Amino acid sequence: MFVTHLESAIDGTHHDASKVHTMHAGRPLWVRYDLAKVKAAVKPSDLVGRENSLWRYRELLPLPAGSEPVTFGEGMSPILPCPRIGKELGLSRLSIKDESQLPTGSFKSRGMAAAVSMAKHLGLKRLAVPTAGNAGGALAAYGARAGMVVFVFMPDDTPVINQLESYLCGAKVFLVNGLINDCGKIVREGTDKLGWFDMSTLKEPYRLEGKKTMGLEIAEQGEWKLPDVILYPTGGGTGLIGMWKAFQELTTLGWLKSPKMPKLVSCQSDGCAPIVRAFEANLRFAELFPNAHTAASGLRVPMAVGDFMMLDAIRASGGWAMAGRETTIVPWMRRVASAEGIAICPETAVCFDVLDRLLREGKVNRDDEILVFNTGAAQKYLEAVKLSLPRLDKNQAIDYDALGRA
């Protein structure tokens, strides 16, 4: 095990990594490693032939070598070139990293694989989470795999697929007439009374480490060179923060072939954009976004505990926080899927609207290598698309000419 300690992200205070921790001074903790020892123990060529999963990066993950991970065999998600939608946008090097192919249909598999593995290692038995959807389903699945009791609290308009997957995996699921921060209050206030551990975004240190593997994969898949621009949909922001942490660790290890870092683009909906507002106002901390609403349920996070961590990373990378238009979510979902066959989620549709704006404003170059994250499967968002398809009557003659013109 190469973990040395946990470190407060707000003031640098060190904590014993062998004990159970949540936050320090109300803010998240970093997991820190002895990177000199990691560098001496492993090099990029050693990864060749290892299992095709996030656990191939075991030296840069917190679970001790003697502990078995809680896993569904979560493999490396593919980076898929997108030449047709790229051509429409005037881009020659556009790709999507498709996280929908992970075990629970979203990038939440990564965070929960690491967090539940560590929870089991540390002897925890009962876990609870507030969720906008996919995190609840992922915790329910990994918790069931680990034999733990899981409580899931979600807004009452959370996509029904997320409700169903949490229920089928045996979690105790509750709908709340509020937003994710209201669900978080219930989890926080129930911790002492019911003895569960709070698995909220960035309120424990290990979901971040699982999400960090997205950055490690990007580097390895790019033969240790990083793309020019990464567009990532941000609600709680763990993935964006985790990737930036991965890039810093890889730099220290000397594994990257170029010191140039990608520009990180935090993509939010104009219906819920606290990070965008803070970025535009040159603030380090975001204020509560009032009346938050968006069809991209994963982005409906009106206040994030890791706001300053996101904003620090965005600014350090030379990137931006930008809002996509709520009204363009479904058109972009159809446009991308029609062009490339990749069923993108509403959150990723927001990224494409932001990308279109970046190009129109000249903020990115058309020959840049641009990577967009598809954080979940479109099939998990049935309520986001209102569908009215033409019907045919089997008892009447079919007008095939009309069908051809449809």
List the secondary-structure elements in sequence, H or E: EEEHEHEHEHEHEHEHEHEHHEHHEH
Shape, please?
A: globular
> Low-confidence stretches at least 5 residues in length (pLDDT < 50)?
none
Mean pLDDT: 96
Strand order in the largest sheet: 4-5-13-10-11-12
Gyration radius, in Å: 21 Å
Reported by name, the CATH topology of the domain at 79-105 and 205-384 is: Rossmann fold
Number of helix segments?
Answer: 13
CATH architecture of the domain at 79-105 and 205-384: 3-Layer(aba) Sandwich
Largest sheet: 6 strands, mixed
Helix and strand content put the structural class at alpha/beta
Strand content: 15-25%
The total count of strands amounts to 13
Q: CATH class of the domain at 79-105 and 205-384, please?
A: Alpha Beta
- Tell me the distance between the termini: 60 Å
The percent of residues in helical segments reads 25-40%
Q: Layout of helices and strands, plus pairs?
A:
Elements lengths: L2 E6 L5 E2 L13 E5 L1 H7 L37 E3 L1 H7 L4 E5 L9 H14 L4 E5 L3 H13 L2 E7 L4 H9 L3 E5 L3 H15 L2 E2 L7 H16 L7 E5 L4 H16 L9 E7 L4 H7 L26 H11 L2 E5 L4 H12 L5 H15 L9 E5 L25 H6 L1
Parallel strand pairs: 5-13, 6-7, 6-9, 7-8, 10-11, 10-13, 11-12
Antiparallel strand pairs: 1-2, 1-3, 4-5
Helix pairs in contact: 3-4, 3-7, 4-5, 7-8, 11-12
